[in-house]
Specification:
Strand order of the largest sheet: 3-2-1-4-5-8-9-10
Shape: globular
Length: 327
């Protein structure tokens, strides 16, 4: 399989960073955005204001024409999880049958409770759904700093060929076939990262942060097992690896949201306009856990704080006063 021409749908920080990474790998890249004004500015300046100091590769064609996806051998959908269905529908009539369509969002669709690959399968029946996830900040990828992620499709050969085509010395996709496991790791870790941010914002210390991250990972493992994920996936880059990154750095939008809430800001405004996927995923994740009788006290506390049904101090007290039990 030859994946020489790649379309990246979504010209935000992550889409621009991935476009640069793919160009660095030698691919011909079309970076497609819907905001004609922003796209015109990006085409002229060759710089995304969200990625300071990074210049867009000359190998990247910047366009607002969704029809450019027609020539692509693979399509990356780099839009928020709650917008992924619209993006998939926008390219559905342009791509060729059998084209891999790779979700680069980390979340679960609200209302339907669908994972990202399921959304792609429903929206583009002829596509090969895939997912790319792992411990990665846009600015690192854009600058060409070493980054490793997981790229999963149900067919091993397709996953291998895609990983080979998209990878470079600095951007290393490890291939997998456990699509569901990769999706769960990315979605659940965002919710837990908000909790880690709250702990940091409240000044509860490094020991508490380590405890929350560890117990949160136990929740992620339980949830993953209930929904068919493989343990080795959840302990890999797209699970534990991504959890460690986002639970320890203010570069994470989810951690930053929790940090602001922990310092006393209201959940509704604490994001300061930045998108934190975990804020949309939390309640869905908890509802799905309840459905399969999965115990997720940390995620449930985060969801309750975000929904305004529980104050931060009450949530912390509830977690600290849970019955002592064996690990």
């Amino acid at each position: 399989m030859a994946f020489e021409r790649i379309a990246v749908v979504g010209a935000g920080a992550w889409g621009t960073a991935l476009a640069n990474a793919l160009a660095r790998a030698g691919r011909a890249v079309a970076l497609i955005g819907r905001d004609a004004g922003a796209i015109a500015a990006l085409r002229q300046s060759r710089a995304n204001p969200r990625l300071p100091g990074v210049r867009l590769s000359e190998r990247i064609a910047v366009t607002a024409d969704m029809g450019e996806a027609q020539a692509a051998d693979a399509v990356l959908l780099v839009v928020p999880a709650q917008s992924l269905r619209d993006a998939a529908r926008a390219v559905a009539g342009t791509i060729r049958p059998g084209t891999p369509v790779i979700a680069c969002a980390k979340g679960i669709e609200r209302g339907t409770r669908k994972f990202m690959a399921e959304v792609i399968a429903e929206s583009i029946a002829s596509a090969v759904p895939a997912i790319l996830s792992g411990p990665s900040f846009a600015i690192d990828v854009a600058r060409g700093l070493p980054t490793a992620v997981t790229l999963a499709t149900r067919e091993r050969r397709t996953a291998e060929e895609l990983a080979r085509a998209l990878g470079s010395a600095a951007f290393r996709p490890y291939h997998a076939t456990d699509v569901r496991g990769v999706e769960i790791g990315g979605a659940a870790k965002n919710v837990l990262a908000i909790g880690a941010g709250i702990v940091a914002g409240r000044g509860l210390g490094a020991s508490a942060a380590a405890a929350l991250t560890t117990r949160g990972f136990a929740e992620l493992m339980r949830f993953g097992k209930a929904y068919g994920a493989r343990a080795e996936t959840l302990t890999g880059l797209s699970g534990l690896g991504d959890l460690i990154l986002t639970c320890s750095s203010p570069q994470s939008r989810n951690f930053s949201l929790g940090l602001a809430i922990g310092k006393g800001e209201a959940p509704a405004t604490a994001a300061h306009g930045a998108l934190a996927e975990g804020a949309f995923t939390a309640s869905v994740l908890v509802d799905m856990a309840i459905e399969r009788e999965v115990d997720m006290p940390v995620a449930a506390a985060v969801a309750a704080v975000l929904d305004g049904t529980l104050e931060v101090d009450a949530a912390i007290e509830a977690l600290l006063t849970r019955p002592l039990k064996g690990e």
